[in-house]
């Protein structure tokens, strides 16, 4: 059974859009931009935080802080019944920035950020020893042109 999704209205989406532009935006600034009271901005944002719709974090530019090897890894699992435990183990690795189960040729899609190519090789070798990992295919990202949060305007 699927979880109930939080119902969001235009004000909620507007608050989320403000925070995507500036995660440090104050309640007063949000209220001014949306033409609502500071209390409304505070109450709405606190609800969005409590319901897990948004979390406020500092976003780091990986290259500027020393991650020089950013890669995509396709992982093939055999037998397929091991997909969940393999995904759980891989998700616990600090290098993992994205992990998803997929349809198609491979079973898991992983994006990783490593300090160097040697670090990336060590990571791939390490996950290759996990029970159920049958094969991996690694694609190194030479240059990332866009790294963004979803555009909430697409939901309108």
How would you explain this protein's 3D organization?
The protein is α+β, with helices and mostly antiparallel strands. It folds into 2 domains: 10-50, Winged helix-like DNA-binding domain superfamily/Winged helix DNA-binding domain (Arc Repressor Mutant, subunit A), CATH 1.10.10; 63-141, Lrp/AsnC effector binding domain/regulation of amino acid metabolism (RAM) domain (Alpha-Beta Plaits, 2-Layer Sandwich), CATH 3.30.70.920. The protein contains 5 helices and 4 strands, in the order αααβαββαβ. It has a 4-stranded antiparallel sheet with strand order 2-3-1-4. The radius of gyration is 20 Å and the shape is elongated. It starts with 9 loop residues before the first helix and ends in a 15-residue tail after the last strand.
- For the record, the CATH class of the largest domain is Alpha Beta
How far is the first residue's CA from the last residue's CA? 26 Å
Which whole number gives the mean pLDDT? 92
Number of strand elements: 4
Organism: Spirosoma telluris
GO biological process, one term: regulation of DNA-templated transcription
GO molecular function: sequence-specific DNA binding
GO cellular component, one term: cytosol
